[in-house]
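Support reply, case 0932

Customer input (verbatim):
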Amino acid sequence: MTRRTEWPDGGGHAMGGAEHRKGRGGRDDSGDPSPSRAGQGSPRTPEEQARAICLRLLTGSPLTRSQLADALRKRDIPEEAAEEVLSRFVEVGLIDDTAFADAWVESRHHGRGLARRALARELRTKGVESEVIDQAVGRLDPEQEEATARELVARKLRSTRGLDRDKRLRRLAGMLARKGYSEGLALRVVRQALEEEGEDPELLEQWAQE
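Our regenerated output:
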């Protein structure tokens, strides 16, 4: 069973917060020196710019290495400088894709009811490596996933009352499918919920086999 935790708000990086406060006073949104500071010394190196950008972004919410790399690329930070800064951030723990994936799975499963398949898909879009994704979603055991599916159906069941049996089945099973649950699990959970409401189990079984 996974332990329910809340997705971090991103306010826990004291180092990043200090950089953020400094940035509001002396830098524009691109991470470059403001005109008021431009004449006070030599221009910052690409590494210094990359460091400032990453610290500022991490004050808002946790991000993966891939997301930060994309952000630096969009700001025309040279690849060599970006890699140096990102690697250093990984070393000191400011970037931790494993912790990010674990927190994402717990938050999105308990908050949105997403199943392992949907969670893995979201993590892939954020650039998390496949091995890290497998480990994170693997911590969500099948029993917890099925229990969450039952909770989702129970909450949705009332709104389908008054519809015919086929529409209720399709609507409830479709809701679970969109959240990443397998067809077999979705149909089993929905059939059991409708049986408990008095639907004929034989008719439900016939529908599932069609």
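We compared this against your earlier run and they match. Two observations from our side: Confidence is low (pLDDT under 50) at residues 1-39. Residues 48 and 85 are 9 Å apart (CA to CA). Please reopen the case if you see a mismatch on your end.
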